[in-house]
Amino acid sequence: MRNLVLLGGGYGNMRVLLRLLPNNLPNDVQITLVDRTPFHSLKTEFYALAAGTSTDKEVRVAFPDNARLKHVYGEIVKIDREEKTVLLADGTVVDYDDLVIGLGCEDKYHGVPGAPEYTHSIQTIAKARSTFEKLCGLPPGSTVGIIGAGLSGIELASELRESRSDLNIKLFDRSHRILRDFPEKLSEYIKQWFEKHDVEVIAKANVTAVGPGEVHNHDQIIKCDEIVWTAGVQPVKIVRDMEAEKDKFNRPVVTQYMNLPDDEHVYVIGDCASSTLAPTAQLAEEQGEVVVKVLKARWMNQPLPEKMPEIKLKGFMGSLGKKQGFVHLADTTVTGRIARLMKSGLLWMYKRQNTN
Questions:
Q1: String of DSSP letters for 319-338
Q2: Average per-residue pLDDT for the chain
């Protein structure tokens, strides 16, 4: 019996499971899923968990239950490609014939002194829970600094404002305008929302250090009671430490079939994998689709296409609290209530298709 091992129960590997189970797995193949937790976490919603507007249960989905799917829970400490094994912290060894690495990412601090020690994170469900405890335990009138005005920072700032109208919120944006790579109409809409709801956006920020209760921006020290970091990501350490060809962001280089160039039995998807596209849940799912097609062809000894179809992302969605949002699809921008309903509908559909 061949063993397909999936490392990480994120968006990419959930798509692999959805496509292979229950009826598309060859009779001589079983699947082993390795993860820290017994559920799939909706990472795109961690901002709401941290802000206190969604519960823990609302941001997770149960893994599939199938006789040919084995669940192994624990912390991965080593991937041994020569032995074709995965070692867990408790000493468990998982053998694989094919391996799909979808372990996601962690915060990247860009060498900013004090950032790892004095900021909170929303990169894992455990860290989002901890951040919720810190933010929602603050007394009235406290100041929260959010470093990084990408999608995560924007959504966290707006959701926190909805959760805690009594807090002072400062959003540090390195650019001259929010989401500078997208239409100015979108940036202006978000800017106006923040102005209306009293969220201070500090544009052209250059955070040089973080201390206990303070952010060093250029030559100014800004006092904050709690600070959250949303200013960049990198692959998790075990992937950064892998012996494999890497790109400039320390992500393993993969072929068009999503496997390592020197190992057709090891696939890398999601935030871990080198790509010219931005790391998103949507990208991870599309890469999972590629892996499924390639695996099925290889299992049946069929030739692979000389050229795989190019992955094209449809766009992105963001929320500004529970009532407003923004959507950018196919060069079209939608804002307001309709955009928020579109995002809520997509989340509902995702949960439905991934729930047994």
A1: EETTTEEEEEETTEEEESHH
A2: 96
